[in-house]
Prior knowledge:
40% of the residues lie in helices and 16% in strands. With 347 residues, the chain is α+β, with helices and mostly antiparallel strands.
Amino acid sequence: MTSPLPQLNPHEEALVLEAIEGTLAPEQHAGLEALLTRHPGLQEHMAAMRSDRSRLADLTFELPPEVDLVAPVLARLEPEVLPLRRMEIPRRRRDVRWSPAAGRRLALAAAVLLIAGFTAAYVHSQVGTPRLRPPVAVDTPDTAHPPVIVAEGPDVDAPAMESADPIAPEQLLVAAEGFWEADRALEPDLKRAVQLLSEGRLAIRVLARSEQAAREGLETMRAGIASRSKTWALAGRVNDELCRRWERDASLQPVWAVDQQADTIIEVPIPTLLEVWSADLQLDATALASLTHALSELGWRVHLEEMSRPIDMEPGSLESALWWSEPNSTWHPSGSVPVVIDALVRP
């Protein structure tokens, strides 16, 4: 029969456990021997403990499979929690009934909106008249395909670019307008032009296809300067100081264009200022339209231009300055406008 395990203090228990585990230090052997001498039955208990330790070390353990404990809990709680969400109180809705009368009213409203939209788009597209427009009362070749600018600047080889084939003067005019005048604003309509005339901010620019065409038109103007129209009159040339303000920048470089129809390359000349005249006319659209038509009849391209500030124009004649001396039946609101005459002068 095995003797009972004696009562040991913590130090003695530590010696016994290290001896069972096989980790007892050499200096501790003397203490263990003294302990076994005092308790002879302890040696038997230590042998049994070593045997149990060896058997347990030889055993193999299999870990249990992982079990998802969260999913079953959520599956159980979800149907219990969902009914607790806030539910909107159903409102009583008015039943919508479709009637033929309502359908007709809706169709009429849609038609009105469509018509108004197309009308507004058309009116918006017609506001302002583009500056570049076909010549008036001049028989010219087809200008639907004007020359296209291909080069500009002082480094262009002019002799290499020149072509022996002549180009139609009117096509050259279109090319010059398309390049030199492209940066200008859209031409104002007659109503806006009359308002600008009353403010002194309207100018009429004309462009002749050649210097000869410009001189011929000027001779016609000088010959008819004494004949006064019912609504307008050409008053003659302005002073040199006012004329100089319309001169173009002298540093402009030559420009070359290709005529796609004739397969030629031509130089597009810079419009050159020849003269600036003054015209007196009544403040109405009819008078302005009559004046621009008369200028276009000279073979010139005519367009109206809005100035940023008023132009100080001298009275064209003593009669226009003393308008109150004439019969009151001839009194009309009037204004003066400069007529700037440019021409394409080819070198």
